[in-house]
Amino acid sequence: MAGPDSDPDAGPLPDGGAPGGDPVVAAVFDAVAATAPEIRAALPGRRVESGTENASGESVLAGDLYADELLGDAITALDGVGLFVSEERETAVDAGGAVGGDGTGETADGSPYAVAIDPLDGSSNLRSNNAMGTVVGVYDAPLPATGRDLVAAGYVLYGPITTMVVADEAGVREEVIEPDGDGGVERSVVTDDLRLPDDPLVYGFGGRVPDWPDAFTAYAREVEDELKLRYGGAMVGDVNQVLTYGGVFAYPALVDAPEGKLRLSFEANPIAYIVERAGGAATDGERDILDVEPDGLHDRVPLYVGNEDLVERLKAALD
Ligand code: AHM
Ligand code: MG
Questions:
Q1: In a shared domain, residues 27 and 154
Q2: Whose CA is nearest to atom 6 of ligand 1?
Q3: Which residue stretches, if any, does this entry annotate as coiled coil (predicted)?
Q4: What pLDDT does residue 111 have?
Q5: What ipTM describes this predicted complex?
Q6: CB of 206 closer than 6 A to ligand 1?
Q7: Residue 29 shares a structural domain with residue 105
């Protein structure tokens, strides 16, 4: 990934802004960008547990709830969004349009988009003050759906600077997002052609080694001789390192949890879509992530994502 001032043609975004120009997709990422400084500013006071659990049985922090509410309000207000789903909400929210009234996301005519978010991915990093982010998938089908129904995906990364990566059929763009001092945001394009570097440098694998299946441990042993470990505990940050330096990120199947930890609709599918558009690959160990058929909104899936040759070697190792 290029540095913020390395592309001489880069500059402020025109109005709207998704590379492929779909107005609903542009509006979704405008809304996500607009809320990013507000979410960031709210984090210092929201590092504590909220006292509730989400649909995956995980403890929810006050920051998770704040981001979920802010993004939910902004995205459900958009024309062309028929359905809103969040990792922090048990059921889908009917956002208007032609979505059926039973809250399951059954579209009446198939026209509106469904938007899935992980409001604060890696939020356990709030306590230790490390990177985290927001993941967004825009589907043109009722959810749950496969990743083949994504029309765009992106994430905001709350690192030392706030960046947003957006992918659609036209390519992958990275922007820096800053408050404009007037209640809005200033967005500067870093690159509109983000590609995985050919020579991979880094790897990051989640979970505990004793919980990994032997075949994955054997693969990890190979990879650690070739690449540098970069694991921060937030998928968004760890995948951003892979997009920047080349390499492989995994949250693998575990011996006692063959479905791994990450959620297909909110995490794995959007990340797989972005990395594939950037020239990489993503698998659950057997299939392309984008081909995995979900049973429910909160299904989990093992995720192995990065440079194609590293992902192919992983698939062979797990075979
Ligand atoms: P979250 O969305 O509830 O924060 O959980 C997902 C996160 C990922 O960002 C990260 O890859 C993983 O959980 C880290 O898990 P672990 O702490 O087990 O390494
Ligand atoms: Mg997450």
A1: yes
A2: 122
A3: none
A4: 56
A5: 0.93
A6: yes
A7: yes
> 130: number of CA atoms within 13 Å, CB side?
14
**Mean pLDDT lowest among 41-45, 173-177, 197-201, 311-315:** 41-45
- Which one, of 274, 258, 256, 262, lies nearest residue 299 by Cα? 262
Please tell me whether 288 is known to bind a ligand: no
Identify the CA nearest to 211 among candidates 253, 267, 269, 151.
Answer: 253
Rounded Cα gap, residues 297 and 105, in angstroms: 10
pLDDT at 97: 57
Q: Tokens 């709207």: give the residue.
A: 16
Is the C-beta atom of 235 inside 6 A of ligand 1?
A: yes
Can you tell me the mean pLDDT for 165-171?
Answer: 95
**Choice among 102-116, 203-217, 302-316 with the minimum mean pLDDT:** 102-116
155 is in an annotated binding site: no
Q: pTM to 2 decimals?
A: 0.90
CATH number for the domain spanning 180: value is: 3.30.540.10
Does the beta carbon of 63 lie inside 6 Å of ligand 1? no
Number of domains in the chain: 2
Select from 251, 259, 300 the residue to mutate for testing ligand 1; criterion: most ligand atoms less than 8 Å from CB: 251
Instruction: Annotate 73-123 with DSSP letters as a single string.
Output: HHHHTSTTEEEEEETT-SS-EE-STTB-TTSS--BSSS-SEEEEEEEEETT
45 and 153 assigned to the same domain: yes
The parent domain of residue 206 ranges over 202-318
